[in-house]
Amino acid sequence: xxxxxxYHTEGCHLCEQAEQxxxxxxxxxxxxxxxxxxxxxxxxxxxxxxxxxxxxxxGQQLFWPFNAHDVRKFLAQAE
Length: 79
Hints:
23% strand; alpha+beta; 35% helix; 3 helices; 4-stranded mixed β-sheet; 4 strands
């Protein structure tokens, strides 16, 4: 089971779009953790102008903007 992280914040319409795009592309046994950057000062500093960001367990990151093709390619490379 792979764990993916989606860095976001509440009220971010791009983050909502990213979640709707990513969820259907995950394998059934994958887990998507939604991480609100507002919960941590370091996350704010790291991702304030970059969210949404999809991150693999290995640390690879996919920055917005991305589409379904980009996500599929990222998921395959990061597994």
